[in-house]
Automatic annotation (TrEMBL):
It is an enzyme of class 2 (transferase). Belongs to the methyltransferase superfamily. PrmA family. Pfam families: PrmA. The keyword Cytoplasm applies. Its EC number is 2.1.1.-. This is Ribosomal protein L11 methyltransferase. Gene3D superfamilies: Vaccinia Virus protein VP39. It is found in: Cytoplasm. It catalyses: L-lysyl-[protein] + 3 S-adenosyl-L-methionine = N(6),N(6),N(6)-trimethyl-L-lysyl-[protein] + 3 S-adenosyl-L-homocysteine + 3 H(+).
């Protein structure tokens, strides 16, 4: 679900410029404090110099509701300090189609054999490429973010060693990962998202890519929907979400992962890796491979 974009219909925005330590702490605490469907936050290095040395960092947070500014400033003060909290700026965003906005002017993205592209770049798909066309729509997952690309790279490498039979995509967003699996395997792929809009867009994208018969997204928080649990165990489980839900869902996702199966997880900053790894190791997984892209980590975890 994560693509570094706001939640659907997000109208409220918070911005804050500070140093790296405070920026990471603030963004992490916002993510920990809200549901993924309610808010999204990220911290990025800028080209500006921060007083005292180092680069300035920008925190951006988007909310699908009007946040209480005093409560958010108190949250920021807890993560950093009062001066940083008072520097936060609040405002409204223009309601727009975030995926269409993200795709505009973006070149196709390659991840191994996979090439994720918009309709404007359809002609750039080579004969040996596995093209994934993403239609503009109100959902995350254009494939241009390092998290989705990292997951696709893991999957492409895994396919060179074995062909999984059962695949699950949790927090599917626009359906990029599930579509990639269905296009290669030519078989049913299970997928779900807690956001009904994302589910609709994922199904539209599956039909656009000729795999509508194999990909039928349903509304589900994790694997709470029984249809996803009953279709397991899975040889591959994708979970491109956020650090907090990756930790919280480790047990339920482990329960539907086959022995010697793989969980390909992403949506976590580099600093989040130890906590996520600890949660999954407690469920009998070990780190098989790690890919870091654009400040984000994607992990392939193998179940013992």
């Amino acid at each position: 679900m994560l693509e570094g974009l706001p939640p659907n219909n997000a109208a409220h925005r918070l911005t804050l410029t500070t140093d790296e330590r405070r920026a990471r702490a603030v963004a992490d605490l916002i993510v920990e404090s809200f549901e993924p469907a309610e808010a999204a936050a990220s911290a990025f290095e800028t080209e500006d110099v921060w007083p005292g040395g180092g680069k300035a960092w920008l925190v951006e947070a988007y909310f699908g509701f009007e946040p209480d500014e005093d409560e958010l400033r108190a949250l920021i003060a807890a993560a950093a300090d009062e001066e940083t909290a008072q520097a936060a700026a609040f405002g409204l965003t223009e309601k727009k189609d975030w995926v269409a906005n993200a795709l505009a002017g973006l070149a196709p993205v390659r991840a191994g054999r996979f090439l994720v592209h918009g309709s404007h770049d359809r002609a750039k798909v080579g004969v040996s490429d596995i093209g994934i066309e993403i239609e503009a729509g109100l959902a995350f997952g254009t494939g241009h973010h390092g998290t989705t690309r990292g997951c696709l790279m893991h999957f492409d490498r895994l396919l060179k060693r074995r062909r999984p039979r059962a695949v699950l995509d949790v927090g599917c967003g626009a359906g990029v990962l599930a579509i990639a699996a269905a296009r290669v395997l030519k078989r049913q792929v299970r997928l779900g998202d807690l956001d009904p809009v994302a589910v609709t867009v994922a199904n539209d994208n599956a039909r656009l890519n000729g795999v509508g018969e194999f990909c039928k997204a349903i509304v589900s928080r994790g694997v709470e929907n029984r249809a996803l649990r009953d279709a397991g165990p899975y040889d591959v489980v994708f979970a491109n979400i956020l650090a907090k839900p990756l930790r919280l869902l480790a047990s339920s996702l482990a329960a539907v992962t086959a022995r010697d199966g793989d969980a390909i997880v992403s949506g976590l900053l580099l600093a989040d890796v130890p906590g996520v790894l600890a949660a999954w190791r407690a469920q009998g997984f070990f780190l098989a491979e790690r890919i870091d892209l654009e400040g984000w980590a994607s992990l392939r975890l193998r179940r013992r």
